[in-house]
Amino acid sequence: MKIIIVGGGKVGYYLCKSLLENGHDIRLIETNKEACTRIANELDIPVVCGDGTTIESLDSAGASDCDALVAVTGKDENNLIACQLGRVRFRAKKTIARSNNPKNLEIMRKLGVDIPVSSTGLITSLIEQTVDTVGIRLLASIHGEGVICEIKVPENAAVSNMRISKIPLPEECIIVSVVRRGEFFIPRGNTIIQPGDELVAVSTSKDRKQLVKTLTAVKK
Questions:
Q1: Per-residue pLDDT reduced to its tens digit, 165-191
Q2: Fewer CB atoms inside 10 Å of the end CB: C or N, the chain?
Q3: Which DSSP category does 62 fall into?
Q4: What are the φ and ψ backbone dihedral angles of 5, each rounded to 5 degrees?
Q5: Cβ-based neighbour number of residue 24 at 10 Å
Q6: Does the keyword Transport apply (predicted)?
Q7: Phi and psi dihedrals of 179, rounded to 5?
Q8: pLDDT band at 138 (very low <50, low <70, confident <90, very high)
Q9: 163 vs 182: CA distance, rounded Å
Q10: Coil, strand, or helix at residue 153?
């Protein structure tokens, strides 16, 4: 893949190095002349010394036929502008922007960035995926707005022996599979939940905590 990276700081440098090692065609845009010289010499890749938020620099890097444009500067506004230019002016197939402030993720998404990425969000996601707390595990994030999670029903859960149709699940949540004593099946509304069931559910991010609370609450 031909990938243009805007920003030659630590993130941009190691991203270039990693993608290069995986066989991709990498081009870098960076404003700092010393960084440009160092990266060009160390990684032997084309480096444009310029502003990645300008048409001229993006054009010089070959944005007109790139497969992906990745903006990872230290300024969210610059990352957004670079991705918007890449998408609208150069028809980049995929745009990815680093969001230093997690609060800007939704704004970037609404303004056309295909994949806004927050370091804070990634760390949080990794922790949630690797730490199994009370039988709850996050399997995947869906476009930053939804989640797929695995929940094990406790032995003394309040939902034990209840039909799924009777469980007060949040409106935008659905149980998509059940593993019971090693056997997998797709549940229906009349499926009765049993202690020890391993449930996979899809939910909006905002409803995840309520979903987990509902399925793991214990009988009083």
A1: 999 999 899 999 999 999 999 999 999
A2: C
A3: T
A4: -115, 125
A5: 15
A6: yes
A7: -115, 120
A8: confident
A9: 20
A10: coil
Report if residue 124 sits inside a domain.
Answer: no
Residue numbers of the domain that contains 81: 2-118
- Strand-pairing partners, residue 146, are 142, 204
Report which residue type is found at 28.
Answer: L
Structure tokens belonging to residue 139: 């399997």
Question: Residues in the chain, how many?
Answer: 220
Q: For residues 64 and 122, which has the higher predicted lDDT (pLDDT)?
A: 64
Asked whether residue 147 falls in the same domain as residue 42, the answer is no
Q: Residue 141: is its pLDDT beyond 80? A: no
Which amino acid would we find at residue 9?
Answer: G
Domain count of the chain? 2
Contacts of 30 by beta carbon, 8 Å cutoff, 6+ apart: 7, 8, 12, 36, 39, 47, 48, 49, 52
Query: How far apart, in whole angstroms, are the C-alpha atoms of residue 65 and residue 61?
Result: 10
Domain boundary among 60, 94, 118: 118
Residue at a domain's end among 118, 150, 167: 118
Q: Model pTM greater than 0.70? A: no
Average per-residue pLDDT for the chain = 89
Q: Helix H segments across 32-139?
A: 33-43, 55-61, 76-88, 105-110, 119-130
